[in-house]
Design a protein that fits this description.
This protein is an all-alpha fold and about 220 residues long. It has helices at about 10-40, 45-50, 55-60, 65-80, 95-100, 100-130, 135-160, 170-180, 185-195, 200-215. It folds into two domains: about 5-65, Homeodomain-like (Arc Repressor Mutant, subunit A), CATH 1.10.10; about 85-215, Tetracycline Repressor, domain 2 (Orthogonal Bundle). It has ten helices and no strands.
Amino acid sequence: MEPQEDVNRPYRSALRARHADTTRLLIIQAAQKLFVEYGYGATSIDAIATEAGVARATVFTAVGGKAVLLKAAYDVALVGDDESVPLPDRPWARPVRDEADRHRMLDLYARVLGEIHSRTAAINEAIRGASGADPEARLLWREVQEQRRVGARNIVMMLHAKGGLRRGLELATAADVLAVLIEPGIYYQLVLQSGWSRTQFEVWIAETMQTQLLE
C-alpha cells in the first residue's frame, strides 16, 4: 500500500517558520530595549530571555549570544524590521535615488535620515559605549562606521551623477563631510537630549547638507 502524502505538512512547516521569526524578533526587540536602558555590559542573556518571555536557551538558538544580539538589534533598528530587504530598496528610501533634482534629493534624504535615526540613535550610543570595553562590540562599532561611510559615498556619487557638487569640492572630501553629518549621534544630541523635534532636525540637516555639498 502506497503511503499517503501528509498534505498538512507544508502548512505546519510554514506555521513553525512564522512562529520562529516572531520569536526571533521579540528577542531582538527585548535585547535592544535592555541594551539602551542599561548598557551592553550590564545586560545579561537571562535578562533578555525574561524580557522576551522565552527560555534562556531559546535566545541562543533563535538569535545567538550577546554580540550577535547587539548587531541584530542595530540591523533591525536600521530598517525597521527583520526582513532581508536592503535599505536602498525600501519603499521609503527609493524616492531619494529616483529624484532628479539634487536639492530635492537631499530634502528627501533628510526625511530618510530622520526615519532611520529615530530608531537607531539610542542603540548606536549603546554600541559606542560597549566598544570601549568589549572586543566584539568594538568590531561592530567599526563595521557600523564603515557602513555609514559607504552610504555617504553612495549619496555623493548620486549627487555627482545628477549635476555635480559645490565648485571645488572633491568627491572624497564631500563623502567625508557627509559621513560626519549623518552620524546618528548628532540626532541623539539634538533630538533626544536637546529636545528638538524630528521635523526641526530634518529641516536643519537638509539645509546643512545642501550648503556643504551643493552650490
